[in-house]
Amino acid sequence: MTVRFKLMLVLFAILTLLLGGCSSKEDSLKEEPKPEEVPAFLQQESSSPQATALLKIHFIDVGQGDAILIQSPTGGNLLIDGGEKDQGEKVAGYLRDQGVEKLAAVVGTHPHSDHIGGLLEVIDNFPAAKVYLPAVTHSSQTFEELLLTIKNKQLKISTARAGTVIPLNGLQAEFIAPQAEKYDDLNNYSAVVRISYGKHVFLFMGDAEQASEEQILRAYGNLQADVIKLGHHGSSSSSSPEFLAAVAPQHAIIMCGIANDYGHPHRETIAKLNKLKVKIYRTDQDGNIVVSSDGKQIIISSDRGKKTSDSANMPGLEAKATPALDSDESGNYIGNKNSKIFHRPSCKTLPEMQNRVIFSKREEAVSQGYVPCKACQP
Ligand SMILES: [Zn+2]
Ligand SMILES: [Zn+2]
């Protein structure tokens, strides 16, 4: 044996020892380390970066009404609707809890109080760069108060209409409705927002009903979206079979109140979704619903703990061994649902796609009982 060969053997042995800590065995249930074994300094690290490479969409449970916070991967915030006036404080509190200090844009989809009421509190308390409303007026007190609040803040109203791009860092966001100048029903004036990030598309329908859906269908060749916030709280006057077929969503979000007066969501809507095998999330049953995406994978979680990932429906994603996130600087961590170990995105032994859980903060992983991988030491 030459000296060089011996040296290589020694090096190999050291390398094996060093890398052994994060072998694929580590991700099996058998070798799951107990939480007590995690050094305290690893558990207490609190300097995880604020910025996240994740798009986060929060469907805030405001009872019967809409309030949706969209946080772009680069930290821009967009609020679509704010629920009824008495939900304003809840929405403002939710925004603060998410670290929101200012809003790139606020959209009031249409003048009904279950959409614009809570915006009074929000516009009063958060600097907003832009406020979008459709070009329609309404004689309600809430609508007049909204106009006054906007005026008092010396903000200008930008018109929400199809084709207008919403300036939001890190995301493509635009209005695809209203298409027309005049409608019979106030709901059809709804500003409909389309957002795309990576390979995913998200549609936010406001209270748009069939008349608007038909115009959107005529105007856009490709309407496919992964997630849709259904129009008008799941009413049967929205979500026509033709429209749902064109959108072909995997996940549908319905925002409505428990035992609301309108019977939302209507049975017909649920039946249509079931027929298309669309997964349904409802604020009346699930509470707050959060959709996260790194542009390649969608994860949906809610207050009631339902947690699903679309990777199971996308064989292409499973087949690819590429990590969901590309850099450690993104501030993201990837957990293994089975082993409860979490990794840096650059770790060599990331779990299979269908077993992944993405955390935007280290504390989030730790608080859910995940322990750091010994090799990549997240
Ligand atoms: Zn409504
Ligand atoms: Zn409405």
Number of domains as seen in the coordinates: 2
- The coarse overall form would be globular
In the sheet with the most strands, the strands line up as 6-5-4-3-2-1-13-14-15
- How would you classify the helix and strand content by structural class? alpha/beta
Strand content: 15-25%
Bound molecules: zinc ion
CATH architecture of the largest domain: 4-Layer Sandwich
Give the rounded overall mean pLDDT: 83
Note the main sheet: 9 strands, mixed
Contiguous runs where pLDDT drops below 50 for at least 5 residues: 13-52, 311-330
Query: What percentage of residues falls in helices of 4 or more residues?
Result: 25-40%
Number of helices: 12
In the CATH scheme, the class of the largest domain would be: Alpha Beta
Terminal Cα span: 40 Å
Would you identify the CATH H-level superfamily of the largest domain?
Ribonuclease Z/Hydroxyacylglutathione hydrolase-like
The total beta strand count reads 19
Predict the CATH topology of the largest domain.
Metallo-beta-lactamase, Chain A
Global Rg: 23 Å
Would you give an account of this structure?
- This protein is α/β, with parallel strands linked by helices and 378 residues long.
- It folds into two domains: 86 residues, DNA Methylphosphotriester Repair Domain, CATH 3.40.10.10; 239 residues, Metallo-beta-lactamase, Chain A.
- Helices cover 26% and strands 20% of the residues.
- It has twelve helices and 19 strands.
- It has a nine-stranded mixed beta sheet, with no helix packed on it.
- Strand 5, helix 6 and strand 6 form a beta-alpha-beta unit.
- Helix 3 crosses helix 5.
- It is globular, with a radius of gyration of 23 Å.
- The site of one zinc ion has 4 residues, from loops.
